[in-house]
Specification:
GO cellular component, one term: efflux pump complex
Structural class: alpha+beta
Number of strands: 13
CATH class of the largest domain: Mainly Beta
InterPro entries: Beta-barrel_RND_2, RND_pump_MFP, YknX-like_C
CATH superfamily of the largest domain: Efflux pump adaptor protein, beta barrel domain
CATH topology of the largest domain: Elongation Factor Tu (Ef-tu), domain 3
Organism: Mariniphaga anaerophila
Family: Belongs to the membrane fusion protein (MFP) (TC 8.A.1) family.
Distance between the termini: 99 Å
Pfam families: Beta-barrel_RND_2, YknX_C
Length: about 240
C-alpha cells in the first residue's frame, strides 16, 4: 500500500509543479502518503526484536502473520517468539566427589574432550563451584565454561572434563578435633597458642579410619591442636593444656 501511494504521490507531485492538479487533491494524497509512511516506521520500530547477543535460533514458536498470544509455549514454561542460544561460550555442569571440594577453585583451567571430536581437546575454565554437597551421592557440581569460537560444539553434547589437581600438603588430625558449625558446612578446630585457644576454619579432605585431612593456611606442622573439650571453647579464651 505504501509503495502504491508513493507512486501516485510522485506522479501527482510532478503534475502539481505545472499547476495541472487541484491543490486540495494534492494535499489529500500527500496526507495519506505521510500517514502510511509514519505507520510503516512505527511497525518497524515495534515489531522487530533485536537479539541481546550473538547466537543461533533453537526454536520458533510462531509463524509469520500469526497473532502473539502470550501463553506459555516453551519447555521452561514461558511465553516466547523464538529461543536464542549463545554457543560461543558453553557451560558444562561437572559432578565431582566431595573429596575434591577443597581442591577445585574458581578460575582453574581444565581440559575438555567431546566424543564427536575424540582427538581434539578444548580448553575450559571453572567459573563457579556450587557450595552444597548432594547428600544422595556425596557429590558437588562445578560449572566449567568452554570456549567455542569456531562453533564446533553444540548444547547437549557429552563432555569429559579433566582437572589438574596439583598435590597439596594436608595435615592429618584425629577426626574428633574437627567441629562443624550447626546449620552449615563450615568446619573448624581450635589450636593452642601461648595458653590461648585460637579458632581456625578448615576444609576437610579424605578420611583415614579415625583421622581426617584438614586444609588451612593458618595451620602448620607442630601446631598444638585441642582434641578434648573444644566443643565448649570460645575463641580467645585461656586454656590449660594437659598432656
Amino acid at each position: 500500500q505504501l509503495k502504491n501511494l508513493e507512486v501516485d504521490f510522485r506522479r501527482l507531485d510532478t503534475l502539481a509543479k505545472y499547476g495541472s492538479v487541484p491543490q486540495q487533491q494534492y494535499d489529500q494524497l500527500k496526507t495519506q502518503y505521510d500517514v502510511a509512511q509514519s505507520n510503516v516506521e512505527f511497525l518497524k520500530e515495534n515489531t522487530q526484536l533485536p537479539a541481546p547477543f550473538n547466537g543461533v535460533i533453537s526454536g520458533r514458536y510462531f509463524e509469520p502473520g500469526e497473532m502473539y498470544s502470550g501463553a506459555p509455549n516453551t519447555q521452561a514454561g514461558k511465553a516466547a517468539v523464538l529461543s536464542l542460544v549463545q554457543i560461543d561460550r558453553l557451560k558444562a555442569i561437572v559432578p565431582l566427589s566431595e573429596k575434591y571440594f577443597p581442591l577445585v577453585k574458581n578460575g582453574m583451567e581444565t581440559e575438555v574432550k567431546i566424543d564427536v571430536y575424540p582427538d581434539r581437546p578444548f580448553s575450559g575454565r571453572v567459573e563457579r563451584v556450587h557450595p552444597t554437597i548432594d547428600p544422595a551421592n556425596r557429590t558437588f557440581n562445578a560449572e566449567v565454561i568452554v570456549s567455542n569460537r569456531e562453533g564446533l560444539l553444540r548444547p547437549g553434547m557429552f563432555a569429559r572434563v579433566t582437572f589438574d589437581l596439583d598435590e597439596e600438603e594436608a595435615i592429618l588430625l584425629p577426626s574428633m578435633a574437627v567441629l562443624k558449625v550447626q546449620g552449615s558446612n563450615e568446619r573448624y578446630l581450635f589450636k593452642e597458642e601461648n595458653g590461648v585457644a585460637r579458632r581456625v576454619t578448615v576444609a576437610i579432605g579424605k578420611r583415614y579410619d579415625d583421622n581426617i585431612e584438614v586444609f588451612s593456611d593458618e595451620l602448620k606442622p607442630g601446631d598444638k591442636i585441642i582434641v578434648s573439650g573444644q566443643a565448649r571453647l570460645l575463641n580467645g579464651v585461656r586454656v590449660e593444656v594437659s598432656r
